[in-house]
């Protein structure tokens, strides 16, 4: 996809093309970093690092929300602007603990600290709830539903907590300072659906992502037959058809939008979208293959691979997915670590070898 996009340097502004190149290169670098971490820790756990990091991020987010709680009297959007719109690191920490239980091959020393695992798990759940992020809510539910048959001694019932939490938040949204969230949740599809409606100040606020997507599709369709296949290349700006204030500037054309599928379509054409879809499906299939291993750690890796594919596919439609500047960096790093441990069912694998009779495993298990 990067190779396809590079054609943009020949026909679009170099600065804009360089920015797009960085957006496409960013997930590759994160993936390679994860692979390096996984290979350097071969035979050792890496899940503990993600869980601890997720706990720190969740704590930071919760503290920020508490410090800015007065903004909730204005709206949830004001609170999210001040305290942050949620993070994927706590979600990853929660999923790892749910799937791994106290598996020391996944969690290392952390698997022996049940109180710490429970504390981080609860912090992650609270952070997920306080994110007021439809993207994170949907990713959480879909990841758990995709692995609904997954069983771990510690995570069997805890998986129901975020389901209950989201239900409580939706009910609470009908009253008091949470009232705006019900309208936000119900209008999600209207906001995301490409729209050619007349642009008013209200439309720009309420249907911004749909307007972006519609303009992106118009930009894509304006290309030649070749550009419909391979896109307009890096640096192609999406003409909004109107001027809008973004931050402190006023723009008539933008380089990137929230809908990652439309973004990839403009830059790399239908070929790029097919390649991305193939990539996500391959991750999910790899997770299913790992899930049929008899070794418990392989089942955990499989569940995490399936969850990563769901997060990538879901977030792509709302926050540009892995092409977001920073939001999904921890997800791509985790994917790299998981890739380093991937073994198709039936192949010899080092997964679980440490727990089979070695002196070291006898001491730790």
Write the layout of secondary structure elements.
Blueprint: H1 2-5, H2 14-40, H3 47-67, H4 76-83, H5 88-100, H6 104-107, H7 114-130, H8 134-146, H9 160-172, H10 180-186, H11 188-192, H12 201-206, H13 208-221, H14 225-230, E1 238-246, E2 249-254, H15 260-291, H16 296-316, H17 329-340, H18 359-364
Antiparallel strand pairs: 1-2
Strand order of the largest sheet: 1-2
If you compute it from the alpha carbons, what radius of gyration comes out, rounded to the nearest whole angstrom? 22 Å
How many helices in DSSP terms? 18
Question: What string, H for helix and E for strand, traces the elements in order?
Answer: HHHHHHHHHHHHHHEEHHHH
Q: Strand count, sense and closure of the main sheet? A: 2 strands, antiparallel
N-end to C-end Cα span:
45 Å
Number of strands: 2
Q: Report the β-strand fraction as a percent range.
A: under 5%
Q: pLDDT below 50 for ≥5 consecutive residues: which ranges?
A: 349-365
**Average predicted confidence as pLDDT:** 81
Given the helix and strand composition, which structural class is it?
Answer: mainly alpha
Silhouette: globular
Q: Roughly how much helix do the residues carry, as a percent range?
A: 55-70%
């Amino acid at each position: 996809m990067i190779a396809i996009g590079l054609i943009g340097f020949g026909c679009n502004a170099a600065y804009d093309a360089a920015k797009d190149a960085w957006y496409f290169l960013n997930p590759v670098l994160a993936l390679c970093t994860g692979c390096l971490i996984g290979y350097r820790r071969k035979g050792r756990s890496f899940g503990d690092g993600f869980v601890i990091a997720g706990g720190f991020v969740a704590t930071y987010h919760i503290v920020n929300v508490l410090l800015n709680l007065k903004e909730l009297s204005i709206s949830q959007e004001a609170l999210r602007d001040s305290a942050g719109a949620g993070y994927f690191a706590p979600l990853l920490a929660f999923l790892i603990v749910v799937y791994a239980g106290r598996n020391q091959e996944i969690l290392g020393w952390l698997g022996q600290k049940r109180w710490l695992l429970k504390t981080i798990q609860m912090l992650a759940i609270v952070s997920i709830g306080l994110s007021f992020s439809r993207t994170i809510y949907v990713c959480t539910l879909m990841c758990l539903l995709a692995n609904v048959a997954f069983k771990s001694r510690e995570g069997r019932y805890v998986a129901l907590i975020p389901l209950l939490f989201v239900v409580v938040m939706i009910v609470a949204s009908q009253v008091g300072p949470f009232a705006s969230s019900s309208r936000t949740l119900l209008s999600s599809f209207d906001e995301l659906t490409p729209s050619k409606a007349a642009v008013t100040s209200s439309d720009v606020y309420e249907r911004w992502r749909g307007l972006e997507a519609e303009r992106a599709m118009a930009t894509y369709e304006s290309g030649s037959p070749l550009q419909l296949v391979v896109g307009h290349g890096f640096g192609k700006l999406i003409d909004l058809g109107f001027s809008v204030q973004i931050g402190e500037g006023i723009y008539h054309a933008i380089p990137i939008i929230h809908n990652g599928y439309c973004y990839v379509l403009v830059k790399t054409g239908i070929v790029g979208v097919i390649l991305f879809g193939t990539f996500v499906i391959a991750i999910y299939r790899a997770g299913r293959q790992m899930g049929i291993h008899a070794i418990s750690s392989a089942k955990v890796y499989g569940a995490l691979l399936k969850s990563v594919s769901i997060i990538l596919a879901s977030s792509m439609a709302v926050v540009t997915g892995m092409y977001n500047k920073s939001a999904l960096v921890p997800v791509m790093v985790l994917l790299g670590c998981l890739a380093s441990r991937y073994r198709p069912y039936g192949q010899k694998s080092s997964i679980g070898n440490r727990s089979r009779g070695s002196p070291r495993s006898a001491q730790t298990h």
